[in-house]
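Revision sheet: structure tokens.
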Amino acid sequence: MHYRNLTRGLALAAAIIVVGTSSSQADAQSTRQEYAEPVQVKQDEPLSLKRKIAIGRFTNETRYGQTLLRDSNLDPLGKQAADILAAYLVQSGDFLVFERGDMTQIASEQERLGGADEDMVGVDTLIIGSIVEFGRSEDGKRGLFNRERTQRAHAKVAIRLVDVRTGLAFHSATGSGEATTETKTTLGMGSTARFDGSLTDKALSVAIEDVLEELSNTIQAREWRTDILAVENGQVFVSGGPSQGLKAGARLAVMKAGRSVKSRQTGLSLQLPATAVAGLEVVSHFGSGELGEGSIARITSGSLESLDDAELYVVAK
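Predicted:
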């Protein structure tokens, strides 16, 4: 009897120990899991800021279209290529594209509205391009009962990117494209299309598409900068806002332009490297529209006291 009671007691104690151990292990495991899980820190998203660009010139340097296809502005093929490139750049939504090719027409419209606007927005990069190759060809096969006709158009464009501040062409690229159309007839049945004028448009579009991604990546890799509008009560007002990709929390750096010195080797003036004088963080925005927006930032490091605003500009970190 005593043996049975002792056995029951030992079994009950063992169960308690097992349950207690299991509970303790579960608590410990839960605690380890709680502290083992890494804290998720949300990383700042990279800024995607719009650069200001313009197409300065796009000309046809081939013999194609130099006589019959000329209009009053003398270069319809070059204008067409410029329009295609501008349309692609605008549709991408990555740039602020300004008109330069039709400045005469813009000035005329501004005069009708009460005078020309002298505050034309300056761009960061000017795009200069030309059509360096263009041609059309036609092949045909004629059999006893069938006929085939193939029309081809080939285009090649060369484009340069120019830094407006220095006039230096910092990048060049070429793109080529081809478009074809085929017609077939058998026993007089089938397509009998004549000269396909749309091949010119298609070949130019493909040639520009061939180089567009390279141009876009090159422009976006360059430094984005803006200017300081005012410094009041510890707040810094800068040009640009959400429409240009400048968001709250963005980190900016205020740079002081290096002084200009004359090189005795080349006889030209060189600008010494800029230096960072302050750090900024965007806290809010004001205004509306891509060109009418501004941002309010706080100073996170450095100082803007006793500095000439004309020597300062702002870049994205």
